Amino acid sequence: MLKGSLNKLGNAVVLLVAVLVLNFTLIHIAPGDPVEAIVGEMGGATPEMIEQMRAQYGLDQPFIVQIGTYLGNVLTGDLGMSTYYGQPVTQLIWDRIGATMLLVITALMTAMIIGTVLGVFSAQKRRSILSHFVTVIALAGFSAPVFWVGIMLILLLSVSIPLLPISGMTSATSEAGGIAHVLDVLHHLILPALTLATIYLAFYSRLARASMLEVLGSDYVRTARAKGMPQRLVIYKHALRNAILPVVTFAGLQFGQLISGAVLVETVFAWPGLGTLAFESILRRDTPTLLGILFFSSMMVVVMNVLTDLVYRIIDPRIKAR
Amino acid sequence: MRLTQARSLTRFVSAAVVATVAVASTAQAQGTMTSYTSGFRSLNPAVQSGAATGAPGSQIFAGLVSVGEDYAIEPYLAESWEVSEDNLTVTFDLVDGATFHDGEPITSEDVKFSFETVAANHPFGQAMFGKISSIETPDDDTVVVHLSEPTPSLMVSLQPMLMPVIPQHIYGDGQEVKSHPRNMENVIGSGPFKVSENNPAERLVLVKNEDFFIEGKPKLDRIVYPLVKDPLTRMLMLEKGEVEYAGFAGIRPTDWPRLERADGVNVTTDGYDAIGYVHYLELNLREKPFSDLKVRQALAHAIDTDFLAKVIFGGKTAAGTGPLHTGNPFYTAEVAMYEPDMELAAKLLDEAGYPVGDDGTRFSFVLDVPSWAPQAHVPMAEYTQAQLAKLDIDVELRRAPDFGTWVKRIAAWDYDATMNGSFNYPDPTIGVHRHFDCDNIKNVIWSNTQGYCNPEMDKLLDAASVETDPEARKALYADIQKLAQDDLALIYMPQDFSVTVYRDNVKGLPASPFGGLAPMVDVYIEE
User: Fold this and answer.
1) Residue B359 neighbours by CB distance under 10 Å
2) To the nearest 10°, the Cα dihedral for A131, A134, A140, A142?
3) In terms of CA atoms, which chain A residue is nearest residue B14?
4) In chain B, where does the domain assigned CATH 3.10.105.10 lie?
């Protein structure tokens, strides 16, 4: 098992380096560079100023030197300086990861729990109204664009019924600290988390329903039922444990992709997270920041894969043997 | 940096765990004005132009003068000034006892340093202050500026947005000022408001400078700029009244009526004269067919800027008549206008040697559509495409995915035609000359990228930049506008899509042509 883990780790490192090289090259090939974006934002510049800025960001160097320097820096834990903000990229990521985590974990947990419960219920009573309802909701959530859901929820819950704030993570004018600050953040969290959860919910309820149906049709469940086991025990003790594996796999995958999942929701709600930062870095050609976030998210994928593996072993002891 | 770190999850979790007693300050609403920002990379207008920096920047930093109604130059950090007979020396007398936000005195050395920093680092530094030959500081309160030539644009350039007085003891430490860390962190200014929190992910908070050099001002306690970029979210916040004041609101002209109907919300296009946003169709004049004046005339006859302004933009914009914005003091409407006439346009194209070919078209070209003002450029481009199709000209629209892609093409002169637009800025020497000067044909965006060169135009531009008599200068600019329209160096589209949205209870907004980019010392929120 240890050998297997080491192997995986080795693979992961190779993969990360490959991802870095690929990302760097792709961004380099794309037209436009950070200096042009900055000059655009300034409303123009003299050729001398442009030259000077290019030199400052090392963009006057040949490609091979640029990528070599970058890889070397990453190995020492330095992700470079943002060309837009002039701050270290690690700092920028660190400043925003909390907001994204809070949003995504809340949404994911909500979606996973509610989705699984709904899925399991509807699998048990396949022809009930509830089951049809879940299917319809899942389909709608699955196909509705996330920003549209966001705007509709804003219209419903902040404009028509003014319960929740429209955007941001805190009230713009709030100076509060302590409990008041926590409540303020939670108040702002509801809408974006709900929006994001709606999308995830569709995945989970369908996934849980499908895999529950499959498990319920298997031999050992029939055996358990034949033994005269109560329905509840059959479902929650025997079937659910197996049926939940795909759900965990999926959650692991989504955790890894938490940044991409949140981009649109963060933009609509002006949530100060990594998703918005990634999106803006693309528009601003802020190469170091974009590369940093991509690197960070590929690390997340690797880490989540390992964690998912561990969770498997807890849920399904048979996996240990492999 | 400490502030940004303090917020986010760290603050959230620690607060939740420690559960300290809430110090909820809910009674602070009285003098707080909420606005919004689309984000900025620097708060120092000396090294970064544009409204995103300029709007808060003009509150954080003071200038030597401020510009009032009808471009009246008013004393600000300079109590008074004296211009010599030959217009080559200006002596400024600074306000006594003015201090920076950290308590250090504002001296003539700081003013000199600011001049030099702007001249060397601001994109328009050379256009504004290139003719300053030397600056003397005989004592702490006196600044003497020597000019190599008369510079009629000097005074209007000295308000805080273009020439903020910045502290030498902070920015003069030898670091590159353009990327100086103190442009974003712990910013020490000289103006009516101090930075109390700058978290680029969330919000910027300015608070009243209690030691401001004008007694009893500013009136507001705080200005808060949360970061809001999504246009729909902005719209909803404005409608709901979550925002008291939004300059450069970024709202589509077609959404204005909806906002005007909302309770207590006002929409105005006032306050953008000094910025003077003009839009135009830029044709690459180096190559056929656009090198031919007749072709350009045909296009001008086919594109009805008045129709665009009145119908497509719902009468919320003005027709474009030339390089100057209608609110510019040098503006003239007496220029050649190309009446909408499709037959004449077709005739001109025939004469120019572009008859309808065997494939049913005269010629085809690619029209680039930049990404930075889609609410203006997309309708303009689509209208142009439809109009030119009637003349059997095949136009392919190419929408830029992002800013960098578009800039690269235009700055490399690698394009047929593009929708474009730029700011006049308060004086034409800053924002207008750059598009017409033969010497400014450069691989730089918003220079003379179309490649226009007319020696007669150069002569007029040179004369206008040193003419100190306002009437004579106005006559020169009238000639410049006429010539620009005769040569059709650029084909003008409806101008000005900037709008300010504010609530009824916001009083005392600056009457300056700079609008929201002027110091907001008299603004207050009425109970």
Assistant:
1) 9
2) -110
3) A178
4) 277-495
**Does B39 touch chain A if contact means CB atoms closer than 8 Å?**
yes
Model pLDDT for residues B8-48, shown as the tens digit of each residue: 444 444 444 433 333 333 333 358 999 999 889 899 999 98
Selected residues 227-286 of chain B with any CB under 8 Å from a CB in chain A: 227-230, 232-233, 236-237, 239-240, 242
Please tell me the CATH superfamily of domain B7-16+28-210+500-525, with its number.
Periplasmic binding protein-like II (3.40.190.10)
Q: What is the ipTM of this complex?
A: 0.78
Interchain proximity B442–A47, CB inside 8 Å: yes
Residue B266 main-chain phi, psi, to 5 deg: -115, 145
Question: Which residue spans of chain B are classified as CATH 3.40.190.10?
Answer: 7-16+28-210+500-525
First to last CA, chain B: 35
Looking only at the bridges linking them, the beta strands covering B142-147 and B132-139 are antiparallel
Compute the Cα dihedral for B521, B525, B526, B527 and give only its sign.
negative
Interface test with B, best of A167, A169, A171, A289 (most B CBs within 10 A): A167
Residue B369, both tokens: 């559509």
Q: How far apart are CA A285 and CA B405, in angstroms?
A: 10
- What stretch of H or E contains B88? none
Q: How many CB atoms lie within 10 A of CB B228?
A: 27
Inter-chain residue contact A270 with B230, CB threshold 8 Å: yes
- On chain A, the residues whose CB falls within 8 A of the CB of B39 are 280
Query: Rounded to a whole number, what is the distance in Å from the CA of A41 to chain B's nearest CA?
Result: 7
Which of A31, A29, A28 lies closest to A57, judged by CA?
Answer: A28
Measure Cα distances from A161 to A153, A311, B42, B64 in Å.
Answer: 10, 42, 38, 49
Name residue, tokens 């894969």: A305
Q: According to the model, what pLDDT value does residue A4 have?
A: 64
- Given the candidates 2.40.440.10, 3.30.230.10, 3.10.105.10, 3.90.650.10, the CATH classification of the domain at B277-495 is 3.10.105.10
**Please, is B280 exposed, middle or buried when counting C-beta atoms within 10 Å of its C-beta (0-12, 13-18, 19+)?**
buried
Section B205-226 average pLDDT: 94
**B242-to-A282, A314, B33, B225 alpha-carbon distances in Å:** 30, 49, 10, 12
State residue A58 phi and psi, 5-degree precision: 75, 20
- Say yes or no to pLDDT of A88 above 70: yes
For chains A and B, CB pairs below 8 A equal: 209
Q: Residue B50: left (phi > 0), alpha (psi -120 to 50), or beta?
A: left
Interface of B with A in 186-225 (CB under 8 A): 199-203, 222, 224
Parallel, antiparallel, or unpaired for β B393-399 and B524-525?
unpaired
Max Cα distance, chain A (Å): 85
The residues pairing with A25 across neighbouring beta strands, listed in sequence order, are: none
Domains in chain A, ordered, with CATH? 2-75 (no CATH), 89-315 (1.10.3720.10)
Q: Would you call B360 an interface residue with chain A, using a CB distance cutoff of 8 Å? A: no
Q: Tokens at residue B395, please?
A: 């136009």
Question: What pLDDT, in 10s, does the model give residues B298-316?
Answer: 999 999 999 998 887 778 7
**Number of helices (H), then strands (E), in chain A:** 14, 0
Closest CA to B507 of B522, B495, B518, B493: B522
Q: Do A179 and B20 touch (CB under 8 A)?
A: yes
Spatial contact of B224 and B249, defined as CB atoms under 8 Å apart: no
Interatomic CA distance for residues B435 and B424, integer angstroms: 10
CB-CB neighbours of A101 under 10 Å: 17
- Tokens (6 digits) for A225: 């039922």
pLDDT tens track for B59-105: 999 999 999 998 999 999 999 999 999 999 999 999 999 999 999 99
B348-372 pLDDT, tens digit per residue, is: 999 999 999 999 999 999 999 998 8
